[in-house]
Specification:
Blueprint: H1 2-22, E1 24-30, E2 34-42, E3 63-72, E4 76-77, E5 80-81, H2 84-102, E6 108-113, E7 119-128, H3 136-144, E8 155-167, E9 170-173, E10 183-194, H4 195-207, E11 211-217, H5 218-226, H6 229-234, E12 236-241, E13 246-252, E14 255-262, H7 266-277, H8 281-291, H9 299-302, E15 304-306, H10 314-317, E16 320-322, H11 323-348, E17 357-361, H12 370-378, E18 382-384, H13 403-413, H14 440-444
Parallel strand pairs: 1-6, 6-11, 12-17, 17-18
Antiparallel strand pairs: 1-2, 2-3, 4-5, 7-10, 8-9, 8-10, 12-13, 13-14, 15-16
Helix pairs in contact: 2-4, 5-13, 7-8, 7-11, 11-12
Length: about 450
């Protein structure tokens, strides 16, 4: 099973190379409230992905956005597809609009999704080198030595990234190739997800006559685009508040070392407003967007919001609610989401990192006063994040709700090394053992 997975990931990597040669690829962020599609054109440059530095020049890393479109998501709950036909239609709609803007047809797509109950594992291994120069084969060998935990039936590895190499006593190396030493060791972060969620997405994309050239976790993509270089290096968490889920990712040394999902997001806040004020969902969404907040002042008791609509029933249509009442409905749910995020950060040992910056992004992060509430619940260093600017991105697609789509574009241009980028001999492919590495990075950084 591990071998099949290894092969399917390798074939996606090959597909990405094909897309690079053709010079165009589509980016698809399949969310619970919207599906975003970007069409990227690559202008040559060094796009082998060998030296994937993601940072201040990310916008200049050899691509530009030539098409962008979003459509309301359908058939997706908690970040997972539960109505194939509806999701397929929504993907086609977004893709066709983005292709029309780009004036070009796209065959390969790189997708990201949230949900699917991600679980993080830390693996490590070391090999002897006999004072030789480290080669590509040595890196493959040390990766093959990693003991893979028994992660359970019906799970699939989504990411498996070497996050740290050590040569003898020198740790913190991002790439040991070409250096000399006696022993080489590696720390790897492995993220597993529910296999059916990945299979449904892959099947849906195939039904849209597209070839899958890569797949990533939305939480990872959001972190790549929303955390600045220093934050990725020194330690930071990205909290991506989407419609159906809230993604949590932790980065250090420019690598993700933990990811998880909270199965609640902005849509749950909208549902609470809908129930609390007895208004339809569409109306609740509008009220949330225009008048929402989490911090009430004395003024808010006096600010009245018209919540009625044109039903023809005069009394019903004239209904109002105070802004304080609206905040009273929203705040408990937002607090609940942030408390769940706090549980995830604690489980990951986030407080052991040298820096504990927290960045809020995603469409749900736009609720006024959220950063203040989050710093009370999560810790002091909280800021609101917008994704990096990339060439050609339309103004409408530069907000926090595009964090994962923009991050996925950076991932497409410069993927970080994953396990399957190295030629690991089939007989060396790791046997799955029960050695579970938890809080591994506490000892390693």
């Amino acid at each position: 099973m591990m071998n099949d997975l290894y092969q399917s990931q390798r074939s996606m990597r090959h597909m990405r190379k094909v897309a690079m040669q053709r010079g165009v690829v589509a980016i698809l962020d399949v969310g619970s409230s919207k599906i975003a599609c970007l069409v990227l054109r690559f202008d040559g440059g060094d796009l082998t992905g060998e030296e994937g530095t993601i940072g201040s020049l990310a916008g200049q890393s050899g691509f530009r956005v030539i098409g962008a479109a979003t459509t309301r998501s359908r058939g997706v709950r908690y970040g997972e597809i539960n109505a194939m036909g509806e999701t397929e239609r929504a993907i086609r709609t977004a893709l066709q609009a983005a292709q029309k803007m780009a004036g070009i047809r796209v065959d390969q797509v790189i997708a990201c999704f949230s949900g699917a109950e991600p679980r993080s594992y830390g693996l490590d291994a070391h090999i002897d080198l006999d004072g030789e120069t480290v080669t590509e084969d040595d890196v493959a060998r040390v990766l093959a030595e990693c003991d893979v935990p028994e992660y359970g039936e019906g799970r699939e590895v989504l990411h498996a990234q070497p996050v740290n190499f050590a040569l003898d006593h020198r740790s913190g190396l991002s790439d040991p190739r070409g250096q000399m030493g006696q022993s080489l060791s590696v720390d790897m972060h492995m993220l597993t997800v529910d296999a059916p969620a990945v299979q449904h997405l892959a099947h849906c994309i195939k039904r849209c006559d597209l070839e899958l050239a890569g797949i990533a976790s939305s939480a990872y993509a959001s972190g790549i685009s929303s955390l600045v270089e220093d934050e990725q290096e020194l330690g930071a968490a990205c909290i991506d508040m989407g419609g159906g889920t809230t993604g949590v990712s932790i980065f250090i040394k420019k690598h993700m070392i933990y990811a998880d999902t909270v199965r609640m997001g902005g849509d749950h806040v909208t549902q609470d407003i809908s129930l609390g004020l007895q208004v339809p969902t569409a109306n609740a969404e509008r009220i949330k967007t225009f008048y929402g907040g989490v911090h009430a002042t004395g003024m808010d008791d006096r600010e009245m919001i018209e919540i009625g609509r044109d039903t023809g029933d005069y009394e019903h249509d004239r209904r109002t609610a105070s802004r304080a009442e609206l905040i009273g409905i929203m705040r408990p749910r937002v607090e609940e989401i942030l408390e769940e995020v706090r549980v995830r950060l604690d489980a990951a040992g986030f407080d052991h990192l040298p820096s504990q910056q927290i960045v809020l992004t995603g469409g749900g992060s736009q609720i006024p006063g959220l950063d203040g509430l989050a710093s009370k619940i999560l810790g002091q260093q909280v800021r609101l994040g917008r994704p990096l600017r990339v060439h050609g991105l339309p103004q409408a697609a530069t907000g926090p709700s595009f964090a994962s789509a923009v991050g996925l574009s950076l991932f497409a241009a410069h993927p970080q090394d994953e396990w399957w980028d190295f030629d690991i001999p089939a007989d060396k492919y790791p046997s799955r053992s029960l050695k579970r590495a938890v809080k591994w990075f506490k000892d390693n950084w």
